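Hey, can you fold this one?
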Amino acid sequence: MTDVTRIARAIQEAGLSGWLFYNQFHRDEISDLALGIPRAVHNSRPWAYVVPGAGEPTRIVHAIEPGILDHLPGRLVRCTARDELFAAIGGALGPGARLAAQFSTGFPVSSFLDHGTAQLIERIGIRLVSSEELIVDSLGTLDAEGEASHLRSALALYAVVHSAWARIRSALTGGGTVYEADAQEWIARLVADAGLETDGPALVAAGEASADPHYEAVGRGRCFLPGDVVQLDLWAREPNERSVYADISWVGVLAERPTAVQARVFDAVVSAREAAAAAIDAGLASGITGADVDRAVREWIGGLGFAGGLRHRTGHSIGTRVHGYGVNLDSVEFPDHRRLREGSCFSIEPGIYLDRFGMRTEVDGLVRGGRLVLTGGPRQQRLLDLGSDA
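Sure. Predicted structure:
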């Protein structure tokens, strides 16, 4: 159920007049998520929902789709003409209002309000500002239910990755042939058996493919060969729209023990992961940002001689989407200067990618009680291999 009180509180804390939710054809996922509007609901006409910092919200709907906002509180305005729609938006707050909306120069992923609509709103005397901070407070932090959901999924995924590696190890040491798609299918069955769902196949990358952070196998993919690095990246959640994902990456080598270079790269990504966690925990009280964390990790990896192996940010927000709308650990791709806060949930996944192989270790972090909690089971401290159990 939509918590309009929570939304209003975020508006007040930001010193704004209100927040505009506006949609047509379900183009604005943030509006749908924040207000609990399923994609199955017909949305061929524009609607708007204006939540003020104080007072009653306004529901503005088209006359032929009048029930789309019936589940929300607020006075109802029905309209058919474009001018009526924008007059109602203006009347909800009055001239001079500072109204948050879904656009951002820093985060294109949250820019859903089209430029033409923005111009029409500003012509009626309303000043639009980015909703990027409000999105973090309303959609980018977990409540108690979301935290519990994430914790359960994280524990289950740790069990899945260990079972998957045991299956890989058993097949290879028994003289069998394993392709990337075989491992993907084993993981998919384990995820389903754990009562979880996912939005796509796990990433399984062997040999040189492990140097591609978003590798996708073609056909059955590569055959696992002796000495290969194998990267496993899996994410899943409980089957409920309000459930929160867990997202983890583990890495192994198809040998009794890693080479010296493989061991050095793995030690570097593990130490970077630990450095990120320590920086977050130490900096929460002083308002550490996602960009601060990513910058620290880049400096750490560069100091170890692997700056050229960096290809992505340190982490992303996690929510009911595996890549959520909260704070990302990013200082380069889309620098995130928003602070980590109570309820923030995110991945910590430093990676180093060389010509012949790449390695990434990923854990999930949750800010709870003003401290960082690393969720799931014991995090990876040594490479998975064929010489011992996972």
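Residues 144-173 form the longest helix (30 residues). Let me know if you want another pass with a different chain boundary.
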